[in-house]
Amino acid sequence: EFGMASPLSTIREDIFGVSYIMSEQNNKHSKPSRFSYACLSLIYFIDAGQVLRALILPEFGWSPDIVALAAELDFINIFFYLIPFPPISRHIFFLLAVGLVSLTFINTVIVIQMFKRGKTSHLWMVMTLRVLVSTLVTAFFMSIVRWLLFPIDCRQTDSASPDTISSWLVFEAAPCRPWGTAEIAATVPALCLCVLFIFFSVTTSVFSFEVNPLSQVAGDCITGRVEAAWCTVRISVAFIFIYQAYITPIGALVVLCLHASFVFALHLKILPYHVHWFNLIRGGIYASVIWAAFSSIMVVSFSKGDGASTAQWALLAVGPICFIAGLLITSHKRAQLMSTVRRLREDSLGPTQFGTHQPGPSIRYDRKRRDPFSEFFDSDSKLSRAFGSAHAAHACIRNLLHEKDERDIPLLTYLFERAMEEYPHSQDLLMLHLIFLRFVFRGTHPSTWKEKETKLSNSDLRLDLKYALYSVDRKALNYEAGIGLGQDSMSAINMMEVTRKLEHARKRHQECIALLRGLWKMAEKSKRESTLTMADNVLAAFAKTSETVSQTQKMYEDLLLKFPGSMSLHREYANFCDIILSDFDQSAKYQSGAEVLEAGDIGNHYDETRSIVKSVQSSTSSHRSMQRHFVDSWSHAVMLSQRRALLKLKWMVISLGFSLLVLSTVGFVIFDQYLLSTISEIRLSFLDRTMSYLQTGINSCITLRHMRLFNETDVSFNSQISF
């Protein structure tokens, strides 16, 4: 049992970590602006258009004109309508979906490995994953699922030739056989990929929320349960769209209508988004989907008759009215919650207490409390409750916070007291209380919310609440790390980067200590073995030690420049200056700076660290100076013989260098004055005079040779004549 828990917990921690980093990067790169709100609203409308288009089909009895009009709700159809392309086969979209989903999975694995190893060199992978999730999971989920299910989709398209997996892999006119010999090689991997993508989409929907209630980023919500339920609705619609010919339409549509109604009710109960605008948009979309499913039920049931087409157009015309009705219902729900808040405001001790800011959970209100005995016999006990349910209390507290009035913080404390008294076992309220203690009630002592966090971590929580607890813990850890480094806040990516650099600096610090010890041991050994090889080794060790010390010092200086308010970093660099650099003044300065930071006087120390001013006089500095003067007083006598030998060697080197300089100067003068000026001129003049001698001698030799040969030839000829 324990062997199975470890891998599951590791996978859960990896999923939590990736979801947290993605939400953190989303908050870092997104600003609460009208443009971001408009972009996210457009994404929601694109998603809703694909769902509505899949509910208006000719198989349900809708007329062709209405089906053609509903097809224009799909963004893919709008895109190809505005930018005309030649007909594209469905297997092209299948390959595109496989590529995009595979890229998303590979990117997710890489980000998980980055998170586990603490690497921060490829942050663009996190941004890419966030874009892929927003595009594939939120905007084009329906299209991706339909394209991935292409191998088992045997529906005929409007084109003359069939467009199925068999016509693509076997031959053009082949009947659709998804489980054939050639087709199964594409069908099984596609189905596995589709299942993994659906699981990935539901998982990201569950964890796509921001626990910080003060966040105003577009799309941030307090829980991912509503988005996960909406994702299941989209999955149902996608399978109904593909298998409409094999199922009973009215039964599937009734189930889908009830499913969408459940999602809308859950949305009204929680109102998950921090920004109420997105609660309104989602409410209108859910109401439109419910009406589309109900309209399809009506069309399937009463599709025959002369006025069927007119009735269908009338049902379609009610769709925008249903969207507006969804907006109004959501707005009315929020108005009810705020009415409850106003009633409870009057129930508190008086409005004058809310004129001043008194943060913290320690503020309590005196009112008559009821024991369980009196509540049991009181038939009106339920009527005297402040909140109708734990979810109502949850929503009231969050909606009051989003009124953005700091004077309401004592009232928030009062609402929590009432809610926790009436629903003490609600995990959602306990988690929300922990979140408010961490982010909203700024006067809360850290031990208070840490105690509640420990109690919640030991209880059996739902998976989304476990992720919320994980997020609170990570944010607290990042906040404490940022305070320790002199920053107001720090993201998980920055924290991993700083941790890696600090660990690297500490390792180099220890390496410097080891190199210095090795250098002194080698120097002591060189006194016994005075060889050239030993001298080379000592010089090489000295060069390596010097280079490592310089790099480590540069690393510490960069960290101090980036994080001048880090007390631990000041202490470590003071230790480095003391032990490695033997710079006692700098060590005393940074040690005193760490004491200043520990005392809390941080503001005046930043400029001191950045500008490197004179060190602060302290008892530590005086003690270090006395030690240095004492060491300097007797250090010259420790290695007196070696010092004399070095001085003698120094003068020998200087003398030898001077002798070489004199010798080279004398040689140059002799070479210039005697060889180049006197002898060379005599030799050159001789060569000028005798230059023609060689040529004349050679010509004379040749002439004499010709004459001799001529005489010998003439004598031989005369002797032959006489004979």
Radius of gyration of CA atoms, rounded to a whole number: 44 Å
Order of helices and strands: HHHHHHHHHHHHHHHHHHHHHHHHHHH
Helix content: over 70%
Largest sheet: none
N- to C-terminal distance: 136 Å
Q: If helices are DSSP runs of H or I spanning 4 or more residues, what is the number of helices?
A: 27
Q: Which class do the helix and strand fractions yield? A: mainly alpha
Low confidence ranges? 1-5, 350-368, 601-624
Q: What's the average pLDDT?
A: 79
Number of strands: 0
β-strand amount: under 5%
Tertiary shape: flat
Short description:
The protein is mainly α and 723 residues long. It has helices at 2-29, 34-55, 64-71, 75-82, 90-117, 124-139, 141-148, 165-169, 184-206, 225-242, 249-270, 276-301, 308-347, 372-377, 390-401, 409-422, 427-439, 446-457, 463-484, 492-528, 532-562, 567-581, 584-599, 603-611, 619-634, 640-689, 691-722.
